[in-house]
Amino acid sequence: MDKNKFMRSVRLKESSCQGCINCIKYCPTQAIRVHNGKAHIIDKFCIDCGRCIRYCPHHAKIAVYDPLTVINNFKYTVALPAPSLYAQYNNLTNVDIVLNALLKLGFDDVYEVSAAAELVSEASREYIKEHMEDAPFISSACPSVIRLIRVKFPSLISRLLPIKAPVEVAAEIARARAMKKTGLKPEEIGIIFISPCPSKVSYAKSPLGIEKSNIDNVIAIKDVYPLLLPHMKHDESQLKPLSNSGRIGIGWSNAGGEVGGLLVDNYLAADGIVNILRVLEELEDEKLHGLTFVELSACNGGCVGGTLTVENAYIATTKTKRLVKYQPVSKNHLSDNPEAENIYWADNVEYEPVFRLGNTFKESLKMMNDVEKLTAKFPGLDCGSCGAPTCQTLAEDIVRGDATPNDCIYVLRANIAELSGKMESLIRNREDKKPLNENDSRLLNSYIQTLTAELAAFGVPEQNRKDGASKDET
Length: 474
Description:
With 474 residues, the protein is α/β, with parallel strands linked by helices. It folds into four domains: 10-63, Alpha-Beta Plaits (2-Layer Sandwich); 68-340, no CATH class; 361-407, 3-methyladenine DNA Glycosylase II, Chain A, domain 3; 409-473. It has helices at 22-26, 51-55, 95-105, 113-130, 143-152, 166-182, 198-205, 221-228, 247-251, 257-260, 273-284, 313-323, 361-377, 391-400, 409-431, 438-458, 462-473; strands spanning 10-12, 32-35, 38-41, 61-63, 76-81, 109-110, 137-138, 189-195, 217-220, 267-271, 293-297. A four-stranded parallel β-sheet has the order 6-5-8-9, sandwiched between helices. A three-stranded parallel β-sheet has the order 7-11-10, covered by helices on one side. Strand 8 (189-195), helix 7 and strand 9 (217-220) form a beta-alpha-beta unit. The protein is elongated. Residues 460-474 have low confidence and may be disordered.
């Protein structure tokens, strides 16, 4: 797999797009443009946070993931439920109710991601203790956060905790145990993750920190949620004891849940992509001091706020706290899970300079200078009418060759006004009953052609342009 090729799961449903500019205003990496009445997602800028999905009023942004029918592709399937799945249900007091329902839905076995989260917490505690001089460390559990850092904050890459995400650890353990239990080959076993967000869908296809993920398919919580309900109404005394997670593991679904398992006092926990950007900027500028660990979740409220969930993030947070209230602190330890011996990253996360303007430093410097000059010519309103989120972004697109100054309606209007004035001055000679000389005729035709081209670029119908031109020539 090409490590630089990112497989996006957030896509545009073009038939639903109305060309509004909500998405470009909410995208944290300015990865969306609107041209010719349709939005366009720039792959290399997108971090799959799913924020555009939440804020698109026309539901034109969608997450692409697998259907439940993928369980038919394997001889043996293991479900990996995210801990945020439990928080979708009302009055849930026993996790085994959900896990048993997954078996009735068609899975052959289950392994909780929350169980692996407790192993990650233990490994994180040991790593931080041994490398305290390198603090603060940044959580590597949220794929969108890692992608954001690798494209916008390269100086912070070294602070990422080099430990696999709980879902990957869960997948490795689940496959190893399924192979031992069934005697099947690895490719005959399907490891299916039930995800709260599109970011983890992308992670399964383009993992970071490792070469290849053990996750075979990813399905959405919102798809599984209604299918489990009919299987959750039965006597609890008949449930198989499947749950193996404590307070730490299940708590990972909420913002601040990861630091709850690290037993450190000097930490910062932020959720929501806007807050994360502010924290990363301050970390980069060395404005935050005395921290040991920084937990960052791209979704508001943590994983319970993912766009593939069904419950309100803050209600789900309360449900999680209620569910873990009487749980033991932790039920999993690294010493009891030999399958998790390779819990650290195998590959380094490298800087991806997608926002760099030129191929060399000298070229980039010149292009940055051009961007500054262009930006100064724009009104600075950041209105989005040009299809780019800000005036500076439009200037960058122009320098890259992806846009023109006339994409700005204010520049276009000024150009049209200037051309109209010149045409009026030439035509006035005819009102004085003086014929246009050859040079003036040539100029007038040139102005008309330029005006027609600019109106065409702006989307004015051809018939309207012809009518306007004929009136001026009369």
